[in-house]
Write a structure and sequence with these properties.
mainly beta
Length: 67
């Protein structure tokens, strides 16, 4: 079970991209479940680099994903 999954887009410096809008956040997922989440932010909030999406989970270490 993934408890309290929290998604955060990060910039090249590892700082959170703000403001960010989520279709869902702080998710609870069972082992066989999956969820599609839409994440958006204003273009000016992110510099020229590509964001990294961090998934932090209460019962595990954070994971970073480059889309």
């Amino acid at each position: 079970m993934a408890a309290m999954v929290r998604l955060s887009p990060l910039d090249d410096d590892g700082e959170r991209v703000l403001p960010t809008l989520y279709s869902d956040n702080h998710l609870w997922l069972l082992p066989w479940e999956s969820r599609t989440v839409t994440v958006s932010w204003p273009a000016r909030s992110l510099g020229p680099g590509r964001p990294v999406l961090e998934a932090a989970v209460y019962n595990s270490r954070p994971t970073r994903i480059r889309p």
